[in-house]
Design brief:
With 53 residues, the protein is an all-beta fold. The protein is built from no helices and 2 strands. It has a two-stranded antiparallel sheet with strand order 1-2. It is extended, with a radius of gyration of 14 Å.
Length: 53
Amino acid sequence: MTDYSIYTDLNSKSPSIRLLTLQPSADGNPTIRCSLAPVELDRNPAFEALSYC
């Protein structure tokens, strides 16, 4: 079995998080679409926190 991860490594030299972005539906489809991207907090990314836990 091959080890596989959907996550890319976070930058160990800078405080980093993964941001989950919810994508709007173009056709009213109820399926939730999203993307996950690593970002460095030193770059002051714009985001809204849904939970701190």
